[in-house]
Amino acid sequence: MRTLLSHFCESFESVLRPILEPLNGTAQAFEDSQIELGGKEVRGGLLDLRHQVEGLVQKVADQQAYVLLFGPLKSGKSTLMNALSSTYVSEVSSLPAYPCMVYLSHAEDREFDVTRYNGRTERFSDPASLYMYINRAHVELAERLRAADARNEEFEPSVHYPEAIRKVDVRLPAGDLARSGAVLVDTPGLYSRMKFGYDRMTREFRDSASCAIFIVKSDNLFLEQVFEEFEDLLQLFSRIFLVVNLDSTKTDLAHDGSLIPSLEREDPLALIDAFESLAMSAPLKTAAEEGRLRIYPIDLLKAASSRLKGSTSEDQASSRANFDVFLKDLTEYLNSTDYLVAFLGDSLRRARHLMDDAAGLLEHEQVTALRKGAEDLEGERQDSQRRRHSVGRLVGYDWRQSFLDLEDKLSPSIRERAKAAGVATERDLDSILNRWFQCNDSFHTLIADHLTPAFAKYQETLTRFVQQTLSEEVLAGTAGIMLPTNVSADLYAAGVDLSAIGRDALTEIGKEIPYKNVGEPLLAGAIPIKRRLIDWFLLRGSSKVRTQIMGEDNQPTLRIPVEVKNKRIGADGRDVMRQELDRFKGRFFHETVVRAHRHVVGEYGTAAVTNMEATLKTRDMELDQQLTKIVGDLMEHRKVLAHLTTLSNELDSAVEGIAGLTEQYSDTEPTMLIQPAPPMERPIERTPAISTIPTPEFETQVQEEETEDAPTESL
User: Fold this and answer.
1) How far is Cα 416 from Cα 411, in angstroms, rounded to an integer?
2) Domain limits of the chain?
3) Three-state SS at 300
4) CATH topology of domain 39-363
5) How far apart are the C-alpha atoms of 204 and 350, rounded to whole Å?
6) Among the ranges 32-36, 237-241, 648-652, which has the highest mean pLDDT value?
7) CB of 79 within 8 A of CB of 304?
8) Does the global pTM surpass 0.90?
């Protein structure tokens, strides 16, 4: 039979279940990120929320009644579980005191599932392997706790140790649990050093429709500190059952030295009356007066023994009777309309609180930093792309022509300096020629030792002038060339230092200039020689006379006395020699200027162009690598942000759906919840979540649409 309550459970599940996937997907996106996104706290919170939402959805879908058992260590919680389930749950009682919840429910076959804070689940088939596994986990957890204490950090398992065990689900054949549909939840001891497990319990069962059983030994009933933590839990549950665990075998010493039954065996109610009158705190009294707290004195050991054996021995009758009263009250409450109203209202309230927690995570400072990081990376991406485009345009620019134009630019300065060097060389040549006519040197000495070095010096001087002119122009900035404004802008955007390229090219110009061989500025055969009268009589020609005076034309090494030079060569010969030198000088000067200019400036231009091409290639590779990294980092940011957007959209839909359910069921009469439900006009519709999934081009938009699960009928 479909009731209004079953309709509520189906609608509740269809509203809340769709956020499980984005919660898990977002947490996994943080985990799978190839870079450190700094979202450990957010990821831990998302996993925690997913766990809580999943538990709430499952609880409502199955209409489960959670019965929480809590109290100090060794207070009798496992014994009470044996009694409630009529089954020996050694699988639970043998577990180490690990700070996690243990959920005990009915199943045909024994199953043990361990769930960690990171969401990973492992299944065990026998208690022994489970015990060993939890024992090792206990040691690892203790080490992590000590490490957090050493850093003065408050331990948060989802952040500091996601591998920590969050809960253990124990399912085994337990007839009484099968009939009641209840799930027993064994909680961490209140006074365990690993306090975070208890603190998490208070968060997970806030606004829960579950009822709670607090177990305390009679020896500790009057200890005030026993109830300090318990009082914090009073407001979390609609109904609390306080079970005082008696030891009915206990005896007291009589005045005559004999042993007599203790008060808790003879009159346990008197013990409770004394507690209520003398030791009960104000919060406990308030809860008792409101009907939310009831106290039951029970010898749990005997009650559990009786339940497991099915016996009704006289020794166990009193304990069994007290337990039966407790069990009857617990069962009646779980079957009451009060519980159903609490189940419905608290489920909605719990869902709203979880949605608020999720919304708070979306505004977490780590999420804000993630968005800011994505914005910064997008700016860097655009900047890198602009720079790379600039490099591309620079690669296509005609740099060789720009540096060839430098020759024309430097020509006026070089010609001016060449002219000055030529005038000085001309003076040197005149002086050399005059000195030769005033000494006895041979013609070979004139050529080899004086004229040729003078022309070589001119060549060296002019080359230095060209180098100096080039250096001055290059070091003045922009490598000596003029560029259009857009090219200069691209150089700046690409981060290419043109001046540095020019300076480097200057250092690469060869130190040893391959100077041109000067050759012979004057030829002996071109110099006219005056013949004497005897030369005419003897028919000696000018060539023979010249050979007698200077030596062979190709080896004019004979010393020529000054008087011979003046008489046989004379002024006419000197003029001829000047004319020949002038012709040679004019040709040599011009060729030297052109050659030095083209060689030095050309070599510089070649080096500069080579440097520019290499620099642009390197810069393009650097920008490509930089852009690839930026895009990769941006993709990682946007993947997580896309999941966060999907989660935000799903949360908005879930909040809207929960608000609709609250409005729809808030005025429902309790008795109507279990009556046959009228046909539903239409299920609550969800707005599909839409999120943009980034691609490397950041242009493709992917629309994710959630398909609602078809509601299933409650058991």
Assistant:
1) 8
2) 39-363, 396-626
3) helix
4) Rossmann fold (3.40.50)
5) 9
6) 648-652
7) yes
8) no
